[in-house]
Q: What sequence folds into this?
């Protein structure tokens, strides 16, 4: 806390200029700020800038000395400079797709599901995906991502998504998990397919969204195939298990 200023006095302001923090401190601005100018850390600290209501943001300079993390999300139009001295992370990610998965279903044990997401909202050279289980456990052997060619087919062999370097995941009811960043280029407007190869006794969360496509093939694993054989079924316009797609 800054001497002489209480939280009630700070909150009404819609700006952030120069802030200097010493020791183990946290600076967390969430406001309709048009400009975050300079934030300096000496020691250990964290800067999280989430400007959801102000898409035109200018981040001039952020310097961390020692151990700290700078996480700016979801949108910085002009990040000019960010320097880290010591140990820390600097991440800017953009949301290409997101949805609230409000329904749950099962009966897809051993299935391969190919979920097409149209009109990606952002561009980037790397991607990561957030998955959400349904009302019961979810077991996924492998997942991957590729650009759609037609129907369930991808242009090239899909890129596998891992989780802390490991293939697949197991989730309890309602649990979520985020994949590692993968080298996979997405351009705004692209249509991508997320491939999910299910294990036994799996539930998945889902929601219907016009423009999306869900394809499935029983008793199959197709995460590493561009044009897998078999009789695929188009199950409708659903987002299945995929809660968010981010790029950077």
A:
């Amino acid at each position: 806390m800054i001497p002489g200023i209480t939280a009630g006095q700070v909150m009404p302001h819609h700006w952030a200029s120069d802030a200097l923090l010493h020791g183990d401190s946290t600076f967390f601005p969430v406001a309709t700020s048009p400009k975050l100018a300079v934030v300096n850390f000496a020691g250990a600290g964290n800067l999280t800038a989430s400007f959801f209501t102000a898409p035109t943001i200018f981040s001039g300079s952020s310097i961390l000395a020692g151990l700290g993390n700078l996480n700016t999300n979801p949108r910085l139009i002009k990040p000019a400079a960010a320097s880290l001295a010591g140990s820390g992370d600097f991440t800017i990610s953009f949301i290409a797709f997101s949805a609230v998965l409000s329904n749950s279903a099962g009966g897809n044990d051993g299935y391969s599901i190919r979920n097409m997401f149209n009109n990606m909202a952002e561009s980037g050279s790397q991607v990561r995906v957030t998955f959400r289980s349904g009302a019961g456990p979810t077991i996924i052997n492998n997942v991957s991502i590729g650009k759609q060619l037609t129907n369930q087919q991808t242009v090239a062999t899909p890129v596998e998504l891992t989780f802390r370097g490991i293939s697949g995941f197991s989730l309890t009811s309602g649990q979520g998990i985020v994949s590692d960043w993968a080298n996979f280029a997405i351009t705004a407007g692209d249509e991508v397919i997320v491939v999910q190869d299910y294990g036994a006794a799996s539930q998945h969360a889902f929601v219907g969204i016009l423009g999306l496509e869900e394809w499935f093939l029983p008793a199959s694993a197709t995460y590493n195939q561009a044009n897998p054989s078999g009789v695929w079924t188009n199950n409708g316009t659903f987002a299945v298990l995929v809660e968010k797609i981010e790029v950077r």
